[in-house]
Request: fold
Amino acid sequence: MAPTFTKKPIQLSERSIIIWRVAQTAVWLIGATILICLLFFPLTGIVLFWDILIPVAPALLVISPGLWRNVCPLATTNLMPRRLGLSKRKKLTAKQSGIFSLVAVAALYIIVPLRHAVFNTNGPATAMLIIAMAVIGVSLGFFYEWKSAWCSGLCPIHPVEKLYGGNVFLTMPNAQCDKCMHCVTPCPDSTANVSPDSSKKTSWNRISALLITGGLPGFIWGWFHVPDDASITSIGSFFGVYELPVAGLVITLVIYILLANIIQSKFEHRLTGLFAAAAVSCYYWYRIPALFGFGAWGRDGLLVDLSKIISAWAITGITVALTIFFFYRLFIAEKNRKSWLIRPVKVSAKG
Ligand code: SF4
Reply:
């Protein structure tokens, strides 16, 4: 099915541009502050990054991924070469774009288990990870047009954006791309009800869509059954952090493949929504208790210990309510034909 787009392209007014630049600068400064904390005040930095920013992210991706993509500090940094006129503005081929999408999924599945062995307890290592991503993103920004190489390509969060952002609440103007240069097709920002399999152009795209949609629920389940262990010394125990996440990934991937072969193709988007809802619900099912002192692994992922103040039933109530919300929104509710962002005015590729 050809991609559909919401609303006519719009050009931001001068006033709107100023407001968005202020917002981007403010969020960029918050990001820089977190980075400095991770380097020099690791305990504070870890709480700010892993226990506040990251737990908010999945819900934000369900509600308004466009808001995040408009102000993401890494995006603001990585798009700097383009904004300053220093980019060669090349276009990725369909094959390159597909390879990037698969590398992004692989990076997500490789990096996230390392949180247990390194990043959850090591602020400077987390800072280095963020800096490395910024260096890669900025470097790509010198060569490739707008968001094609990083924000809609190699960023390991992007596959999750496409999985969770299939029925968003809020659409807003695109505050990063000044004008649309058709840098990526279909544009994930401008395509209504985008999903991991919106692009089936190459086998790279199809494999990456399969891995993120089918694998993520089980991967998340497995990840939450591994404790943080900063004292890992042997290679064997280091790779042990991958065992349960990969086992979970394989199990739900097989279930997904079986279901995808059974159901009619017109229900494919429902299946994607079902697995998206399962993944984000599983995340909060374990993450919220851990944040408030009811986690299975003691102080792992603890933000504030409320275990002596509120009942465990209150936490269960919140997680059940969130699960109902995610399943309704992503699986049951009709697709609302909204995109994350409204496409800016298009110009010719040479414009
Ligand atoms: S809106 Fe246009 S320029 Fe911006 S990311 Fe999408 S396709 Fe690229």
